[in-house]
Queue: 4 jobs
Job 1
Amino acid sequence: MKADPKGVLTGIHFIDGDHAACEGALAAGCRFIAGYPITPSTEVVERFAQRIPHIGGIFIQMEDEIASSIAIQGAMWAGKKVMTVTSGPGLSLMMEHIGLAAFTEVPCVFVDVQRGGPSTGLPTLPAQADMMQVKWGSHGDYEIIALSPNSPQESFDLMIKAFNLSETFRVPVFFMMDEVVGHMVERVAIPEASKIEITERRWSKKKPGEYKPYEAGPDMVPDLVKAGDGHRIHITGLTHDERGYPALNAAAQKKLVERLLNKIRLRKDELVDVRQDGVEGAEVVVVSFGITSRVAQAAVEEARRKGVKVGHLRLVICWPFPAALIAELSERVKAFVVPELNMGQMVLEVERAVLGRAAVVSIPHPGGTVHEPQVILDKILAASGKGAPAPQRAVR
């Protein structure tokens, strides 16, 4: 399916990542956003509020993030593609409804423009410290998908991918920006609508009385219908059967939760999205994501000029984590270097995949600014044996 031309602002634009993300959402068919202002994400919905009257859709400013995260779910059942936008403190307030969206299989996108924390922290300065929260923040067992752009252009391109994945897997998808990507202004090329592939919602063809909201086929993803079209729809956060009715027993819990996990886990190879630069033949591999990947690339290039065989693995889809790829690389790589704007989160996933077959060097940063390239370069040199030994990080 091609994008609706009404939502595509074709051409070359010089805009920031927040505005580019908005344009990506519009191109993807998003026609409903509920949100609450919070730095540094507000520009996404400000632009949406300006653009949506000319396209046909709704932006509503709710009283808080809790209300926003449930309003989008109601709009999804009314047939809309939906999104909400926030930053760390607001994301924390949304956690219960994130679990509900996962459990009731609501295709939706949560944009998190990350800032320094915890608590209100650094409202106008960057961090990448929400990565584990989006994976594990709500209680219970569930799966999500999370993407991390490193430029305004990717903020546009990957937003379309985020919506497509939410429809394909009927799952909440997280768009993990950071303040730098959100506020940096760069060239963004928006193609014609006829060149943008959009995943259409998988509407059920069953007649009223035959449809069950949670009856899944071989891919474990149920079809959808709209409320008001004559179908019986029962939505609950309780463990439910295929009709959506509460089924409070261990057998129903096992059947439902295993399907929710397996619809992602059994297809995780389809969800591996990384950018590899010089990984083949490398002795050291830098693993990074988001704005940190751009800083890391400068260090990688300088290390190569010094004769180090170093590759760069940039995570575009962070969740599911590409553990199999990291494990395979660990059979022939001397060390992995992991810079991130937090005190050590995704490095734990690298360690889990490597299982001691190679060294793993963490380069934590509490946020507020980005790494100095020299800091990353020094760690690369040390890991390769061409510099001072890297100190061991504290065991947790």
Job 2
Amino acid sequence: MNIKEFKSGVWKKQYQYESFSPSMINHGWVWNDPQINTLLEEATQALAELNAFSLIVPNVDLFIRMHIVKEASTSSRIEGTQTKIDEALMEKEYIPPEKRDDWQEVHNYITAMNFAMESLNEMPLSNRMLRKTHYHVMQGVRGEHKPPGEFRTSQNWIGGTNLKDAVFIPPHDSEIQDLMSDLEKFWHNDEIAVPHLIRIAISHYQFETIHPFSDGNGRVGRLLITLYLVNKGLLSKPSLYLSDYLEKNKGAYYDALTVVRASNDLGHWIKFFLTAIVKTSDKGKLTFQEIMSIRNEVEGKILTLNRKAEKGKLLLELLYSKPLIQVNDVAKHLSITKRPANELVKDFEHLGILQEITGFKRNKMFAFTKYLNLFVD
């Protein structure tokens, strides 16, 4: 099908409202828009260059946790949570009670991402995996009463307070199974020649339009992007935090999805999506370059600790995945008592690697500020 001939779907009369029934997407796609071709080439190259960093950076898994935390905090923020990345790195006990639900939602996303990434080692991307991922997203948070891990069996809506004033009403729940089955087949259809970045662009639009879960669709739909790219080998690690771009351009993001449903303009959405891939990949490459620069700088400083240098290297490894720490964290991670842990933290302060950020006499918190700032908005 030519993208210009795409009909996004039809409105179907239900009891006292109309729901939108999207067209199936599991078929070939072609286009005549040279701008899509150019953006597709740029996005493919930018993503490949980003992935190259995850292959050449030594011990890259030390840094991937921060990429996941970044993606989790920004994807959740699109849905209205207020947890910033520095708060997401703290233990729950240090979060004000009124913000703990938001904190939990971010950590659920991290758990869901880790679960899904491990699952990809055993099975391809599937609806079964998405349902299990959704289960982890929704555990113990607002909306958990809406069956986590199951496709919805009732009508939901987007915007407004009810079906009467909703901005958009997704398909009736009776259509979910067939629509999601068609979507899964599209991911793995080897009989059609559709580039992966075009497939996941269309897939994300389709998933958000179907809105298959009672809650948590935005988070799972954005997580789907990373899972697809890893499953198809375009990324070796979840190093692309696309939600950062989508959150900063939230109005344009929602508008681009809406334009497809309202005007059948799938090409506009695809171009928005490919631009997001280019911009986010370029930012990710710069982040990796800065990580390597900081790493060379601080490892040189640690060598000046002489006999403490080995312990210093172990502490540095902790800081790459947890750049906000307390002395107890150091003691536990290095299997040492509190006194030498405190001394090592002081050494890191003197070297300018750590800064105390609370001003407290007790329960002090130390930040690897220069590294943390790479991920903070």
Job 3
Amino acid sequence: MKKRDITTFGIIGGDKRQLFLAKSISDSCYDVILGGFDKLQSNGNLVLADVETAILESDAVIFPLPSVRTDRSINTPFSDRTVFLDERKIKALMQKPVFVAMRDKFLKAYPQLSDARVFDYSAKEEFAILNALPTAEGAVECAMNGYEGVISGSKCLVVGFGRIGKILAKLLKALDADVTVSARRQEDFAYISALGYSCADTASLSSVRGYDIVFNTVPKLIFDKELLSNTDINTLIIDLASLPGGVDFEAAHKFNIDAVRALSLPGKCAPKTAGEIIKTTVFNIIEEVYR
């Protein structure tokens, strides 16, 4: 298969991100078939179909993020039907490129597709980088909704100086917050100081005192029972880390600390941008593989 052979995309399931993804692909002069959107009456010039038709009549198929639920069903929130990939659908998918999120989880649910051309767009570095901005903006929105004061002048701690931490610290600084960033590496400490933030060592966090809002971006249990017992009761903690997260929510509840798990923020706060990011990443994969 060559890139020019792909003229029709099947978009299977998902939330508003996939609707904006479909529109963006259509705007690029490709045909799009939406499958698993039974609750929609219409969606402009996009074709609405059942999942099987969308798979059979497309040249490439894009599944949502996440692609499958814990019961192996496809993630189709715009449909009341529970959709599984049966033998007919799997046979069709074996013949074309398939783009998924969390490939390992997808193939665990459907190991028959292990030899198919299954690409994980969520594992691409550009996908993670592009999603950092809507995640950071969504985190600020969570803080504005959950914190009883204003961001300007508030004391904020950002735990982790990765993709999201870097952008989030910048946004908070622009809102005139007093920003401290914690990290582990000496080079990060140098960058944090050079950018004008206060600096802390994540490995040495034994208490969290004097902060109004704490944003955790580290996918590791940082805020365990011991640290939460030494955290100010009026501190708002927003956990942005992927599951299992970085906060012991049971302990936070016990200590009456307001802790919020904020997952999938791009899809919730910026579905248009999130959909366009998926398109960009998928098209980059096609460019790399099908020259």
Job 4
Amino acid sequence: MGLFSFFKKSDKIVQENTIDSKDLLGKASTNTGDNRDVETKLSFHPDWDVPQEQKYIFNFLANELEPLKPNQLSLSSISIEENKRKWHVRAFFRSSLPQAIELGEIELFIMDKNDELVASKKFDFKALGTIPAESARPWVFEFDKSAIKVDEIPEDGWKIAFNLVSLRGHQLELDPSWEKQLPAAQKEELAKIVETLPKLGETEVNFTGLQAKLADNGNLNVSIFIRNGHNKAINLEQLPLEIVDATGKQIANGSFNMDPVLTVQPNSTKPWTFVFPAELVDAKDADLSRWTARVTQ
């Protein structure tokens, strides 16, 4: 099996990315009071026929692994080799769970020493097979050129890591002022609306209308969902917006300076209210039964 040729005597463990198993499996452990150190045992895929010399290498690397706490999952980075314009990333996938697990699709990141993203790809962890309780399984994660965002392999200090943002799913994010003012029923209603919205692309930022009201003084108050599909937060310092009614007529147009800067967390939707002053509003014969918010150039 070609996998073995990627592990060498000179390899060593360089970084750990450890998470609580509930972040990946979506359920809390029942052994919450257990705080012992868990030594993970080396585990091979049942289909592997591992040469004796390779077993020595794997055992040497496994002995370098730091103990985990109960109910954790970890990726232990070893090394990266470029081969045929692909990165072959050597690592241990480890589990300190008290029972065996089999996982599905998980997105992994390669981060450099400054925690900047240099590669990302979804992997089907079913290929790793069933992971026994409290074990460490060596694996090579193959990142194609399309998944790599830089020209060179990162320097020392890099790591392979779980994309926790994608694992938790898209979420409603409320500004502290909204969190404080809104009753629980309204928060729940907003969360349900967010769940029904179309799925965002991985780099998509979307503005979706929520509510529009004309005030007695001629101002137009619009509440908008700002939706961030990125795996990093976005910061809005200035936002040029126009509002178009059901007939396609522009009824408001203005630019908003966000002070303080409006931040939308990764893979999150944040509602925000914008007030167009009367002088920027043309609401004559406006049809607000349906309307659209657009970012202008």
